[in-house]
Write a structure and sequence with these properties.
Number of helices: 12
Order of helices and strands: HHHHHHHEEHHHHH
CATH class of the largest domain: Mainly Alpha
Strand order of the largest sheet: 1-2
Strand content: 5-15%
Largest sheet: 2 strands, antiparallel
Radius of gyration: 26 Å
Helix content: 55-70%
CATH topology of the largest domain: Butyryl-CoA Dehydrogenase, subunit A, domain 3
Number of domains: 2
Distance between the termini: 13 Å
Shape: elongated
């Protein structure tokens, strides 16, 4: 085995997909230092990582080891084809399971936050008396009517739809780009409407004779929607580069020897 030749071949495979060493490290759940050592010939990937590299780059394991394309008509190694592919071989699981866990955890947290005091509604049943009823997010959805309820329903549905897109990220290797974009735009719309609702409620509190004091739940849910979107586009397990690498560019250059 020529480790240097193998390293140059791995470098070419990575460059052909316009990936950085950091990007590849995140995809294969290893350190950037490990990628650097592979490509410099200081070390080689273990058999499990070789199988992941083979499936990701559509080359045979033996071709990676030899550092060159041995049979242009073959897409995968016979070592991989000879057995039933596992979930990870089919692109399901690492590193994509993180997106599923992230979004499902967000749904659970949103359900918990929906029970917090959300906003008080004041009524004036008689002269000199004021009755204030505090609603939580759940009660606004199911125990009230009007434009506010419709807006809250839209916010809730947008959030649930965006979170459920992560199931597609986890299970559908061929459509991850589309699922990521759908989750991005749905989460962005959810955040925008949450901010709009928050600003509307704050504005309303200054235009009434009896100011409406925003409750803990409305503030936390607004912060949560912003944090959910920001984390989605920045965390390695959910950010765009993990699921939407740059379009592959075919480069007709020989492998350096």
């Amino acid at each position: 085995m020529d480790k240097v030749k193998m390293g140059k071949f791995l470098t070419q495979l990575r460059n052909d997909k316009n990936l950085r060493q950091q990007d590849e490290a995140e995809i294969f759940q290893v350190s950037p230092q490990a990628i650097s050592k592979w490509e410099s010939g200081e070390s080689v990937p273990d058999i499990g990582t070789l199988e992941k590299l083979s499936n990701f780059y559509k080359v045979g394991i033996d071709e990676i080891i030899n550092g060159e394309i041995m049979n242009p008509n073959a897409n995968v190694s016979t070592v991989v084809v000879a057995r039933n592919p596992s979930m990870e071989d089919r692109g399901i699981g690492k590193p994509f399971y993180g997106a599923f866990i992230y979004s499902m955890s967000a749904i659970v947290l949103a359900l918990i936050l929906s029970l917090f005091p959300y906003i008080p509604f004041s009524a004036y049943p008689g002269y000199g008396s004021v009755v204030t009823v505090v609603f939580n997010f759940y009660q606004v959805l199911f125990s009230s009517t009007g434009s506010l309820t419709a807006l809250v329903w839209l916010i809730a549905l947008l959030f649930l739809a965006s979170a459920c897109m992560s199931i597609g990220l986890w299970l559908s290797p061929k459509r991850r780009h589309a699922f990521w974009l759908w989750e991005f735009w749905l989460a962005l719309a959810n955040m925008a409407l949450n901010l709009f609702l928050f600003v509307t409620l704050v504005s309303a509190s200054f235009t009434t004779y009896h100011p409406v004091l925003l409750q803990t739940g409305s503030i936390i849910l607004t912060i949560f929607s912003v944090a959910y979107f920001v984390l989605f586009i920045t965390l390695p397990i959910t950010k765009k580069r993990t699921f939407c690498p740059k379009k592959e560019v075919v480069k007709n250059r020989p492998i350096e020897r």
